[in-house]
Amino acid sequence: MSGITFKRSAELAGIVGPYAGFAQNAKAHARVMRKHASASSSAKSETTLDRDVWAEANKAWDSCLSTGDKNGWRNAQISVLAPTGTIGLMMDCDTTGIEPDFSLVKFKKLVGGGSMQIVNQTVPAALRKLGYTEETIEAIVEFISANGHVIDAPGLKLEHYDVFDCALGARSIAPMGHVRMMAACQPFLSGAISKTVNLPADATVEEVEEVYYEGWKLGLKALAVYRDNCKVGQPLSDGKAAKSDAPVALATHPATPLRKRLPKSRPSTTTSFSVGGAEGYMTSGAYADGALGEVFLKLGKQGSTLAGVMDAFSIAVSIGLQYGVPLETFVEKFTNLRFEPSGMTDDADIRMAQSMMDYIFRRLALDYLPFETRSAMALYTSSERARALETGEYTEDVVEDYENLEITAPVAPVPAPSKPVAVTIDSKQQFGSSTELMEALSGVKADAPLCMTCGVKMRMSGACYVCEGCGNTSGCS
């Protein structure tokens, strides 16, 4: 068929000319035609009928080459092997082309629901060809209908098992068998072969890789693999779902978060603080491993709006901690929030706070987060910052065990406290208000904008503003 089709293509080229671009591919196209002709002439004939067919095919290819060398070819490609699986089933064909039967007994899913059992109709003909009696054929067919395979079928000889091998099932054709069958047909087709290489459900990635590599070595132009049960809606299957003896698992409800409550008696710390003149108390409770589990805040007078809001906020944070929300997440969200009251605090580790929330979560971070976590947030104690000025790097505070500490050297005398350095202000400079005085002391304009990144008040730099906390600018580089 390919030889006659290419011959007709060469005749058409003599009338209307070859295809576009043939001049650039004339030598390559002629070489491909000679390879097709060589494959046809080297094919082995098993019967007299086969020899007659191959003789006609060789004549067609000889005529194709002679006409093509003169006129060229109108078509670059003329034949492929199309997928005809579903069409074959509708034509009552168990299989078409070189595709092996999917299974001796198949169950096809219908679009409207349900399934249809399909039994291979060529099994009786094959058994008759092999010389079995009608009684034996009937028994073997009944066995196949009930079991879906031929293993241990009554009266079937072991040497005939291979005849009934299918794509899948107890006796299936090896994946390389599919590949080699395609390679045997490829020289007689100008295009690719639409045939599936069936793999079992437990096929590995390495086995799939081996199939593609072997197909490349054998000269296939295309190769498709199908792993059994890899699709939810697989059209064909080799049988109903196998019944399992294992107990059916009860339907489970969607997973819900678990709350880890604190023990009845737990360690806690109460901290009094003052931010911008506003005083408050914070009580934090911890688990046995030292992780924070609850926070209670006391601000304002009992019954006031502020006290009620802080009580509700404390409950929300505590429940979040007990349901697994990391403390560092709260710290990242609530630090650098800016609103009143803000300003100086009475905490040696946190001298300035931009709001109550800013102070509270900075304090919790210093008390409960490990050094590595809070150092990534640039949260350090006063002693850690002082040590960094001396050594050039931040290191964690070391708490010594005073009970087991052995004194091996005399205690150094306590140095005399250094005299405080007074801040001097030019007496000639006149300040019209306390705002101007604060601007002179801090070096920051009172009306300077807040940093959009960290919330710190920015300092004027030329015509723009720069944040001394994170380095962000208001537009100037």
Structure description:
The protein is an alpha+beta fold. The protein contains 14 helices and 12 strands. It has helices spanning about 1-15, 20-40, 50-70, 85-90, 125-130, 135-145, 175-185, 205-215, 305-320, 325-335, 355-370, 370-375, 380-390, 435-440, and strands at about 105-110, 115-120, 195-200, 225, 235, 270-275, 280-285, 290-300, 345, 350-355, 460, 465. It has a 3-stranded antiparallel sheet. A 3-stranded antiparallel sheet has the order 6-7-8. A hairpin with a 2-residue loop joins strand 11 (about 460) and strand 12 (about 465). Helix 1 runs parallel beside helix 3, helix 2 packs antiparallel against helix 3 and helix 5 runs antiparallel to helix 6. The two termini are about 75 Å apart.
Give the terminus-to-terminus CA distance.
75 Å
Radius of gyration (CA) equals 43 Å
Shape: elongated
Low-confidence stretches: 405-409, 420-425
Q: Widest sheet: strand order?
A: 2-1-5
Strand-pairing-aware structural class? alpha+beta
The helix count comes to 14
Number of strands: 12
Largest sheet: 3 strands, antiparallel
Mean pLDDT: 81
Give helix % range: 25-40%
Q: How many separate domains?
A: 4
SSE string: HHHHEEHHHEHEEEEEHHEEHHHHEE
Bin the strand percentage: 5-15%
Catalytic activity: a 2'-deoxyribonucleoside 5'-diphosphate + [thioredoxin]-disulfide + H2O = a ribonucleoside 5'-diphosphate + [thioredoxin]-dithiol
Pfam families: Ribonuc_red_lgC, TSCPD
Domain Ribonucleotide reductase large subunit C-terminal: 1-226
Protein name: Vitamin B12-dependent ribonucleotide reductase
